[in-house]
Write a structure and sequence with these properties.
Helices cover 19% and strands 31% of the residues. Strand 11, helix 5 and strand 12 form a beta-alpha-beta unit. The longest helix is centred in the middle third of the chain and has 13 residues.
Length: 283
């Protein structure tokens, strides 16, 4: 059973009503980011695609959208990577396993894995952008025969802000994964690469006709990542971007995420780049 099947099919208002779910695990990732494991009633499946998001609510505090960070193949529970940025996330930071939160969703369009089958998958993740892309990474790793090589470029402002450091080591040791990591500023003990994320792209060994790229990160990096990819000769039709832009309600009613005639919460957050180019001031 999925979250949608938990709802009454004859009640349109259920779209706005959260289902109460249990937090079963809380794992700090950095001083600002925390990974929450969530279980729906009866162990129902969320039924999401990589790249989709849910609305999380705490009664008396508020509601906000967060990307799902775990693979759809994970049964009985899902994960949310959340950065502490305001009132709702400040309250969530004090939540321990056993607390309940409201869940609506999943919403939006995710990554269409059918279009990636048989091709190399290049992941470009900046900072918190690794959270939604982690769901895609896990999905690709779960079916190694379905896809080609997995290439991951990950950048953070500092090594203290790197997310999922245990998994980074697992990916680095996987012969089917080419992992490149860089930080803008390294601490005195940092021995890895230093530089912005676009410095990773020129050295990549890419089979251009058989490569797709999925990018997510702070809005400022998109333009420069696109320029770097295009300078390597990657076609626009091979690029997908995830835009989490001012989303609020999740159902296209509040208008906070509107880009001209497109609502990011419904038409995105994952866009095929040729479609995104038609939206003025999208990037």
């Amino acid at each position: 059973m999925t979250l949608q099947q938990l709802r009454r099919p004859d009640a349109a208002s259920d779209l706005y009503l959260p289902v109460m779910a249990d937090i079963t695990a809380v794992r700090p990732l950095t001083p600002r980011e925390t990974l929450y494991t969530v279980r729906l009633p009866g162990g129902a499946e969320l039924g999401h695609q990589p790249g989709q998001f849910v609305e999380v609510s705490v009664f008396g505090v508020g509601e906000a959208p967060f990307s799902v960070s775990s693979s759809p193949a994970r049964r009985g529970e899902f994960e949310l990577g959340i950065r502490r940025t305001g009132m709702l996330t400040d309250v969530l930071a004090d939540f321990a396993p056993g607390r309940k939160i409201g869940i609506r969703g999943p919403f939006g369009n995710g990554f269409d894995l059918e279009r990636f089958a048989g091709r190399d998958v290049l992941i470009v993740a900046g900072g918190i952008g690794l959270v939604p892309l982690r769901s895609l990474i896990h999905s690709v790793l779960a079916e190694p025969g379905r896809f080609g090589r997995l290439v991951i470029c990950y950048g953070a402002r500092s090594d203290d802000e790197l997310l999922f450091t245990d998994e980074l080591e697992q990916w680095r040791a996987d012969p089917g994964v080419d992992l490149r990591v860089t930080v803008d500023r390294g601490s005195p003990g940092w021995t890895g690469r230093t530089g912005v994320i676009t410095t990773l792209i020129p050295d990549l060994d890419l089979d251009l006709p058989h490569t797709v790229c999925c990018d997510c990160g702070p809005p400022v990096i998109y333009r420069f990542v696109l320029l770097a990819l295009q300078s390597r000769g990657l076609a626009d039709s091979a690029i997908w971007l995830s835009l989490e832009r001012r989303m609020k309600c999740g159902v296209g009613k509040c208008g906070h995420c509107q880009i001209n005639g497109s609502y990011v919460c419904q038409d995105g957050p994952v866009y095929h780049y040729p479609e995104l180019k038609t939206l003025r001031e999208a990037l």
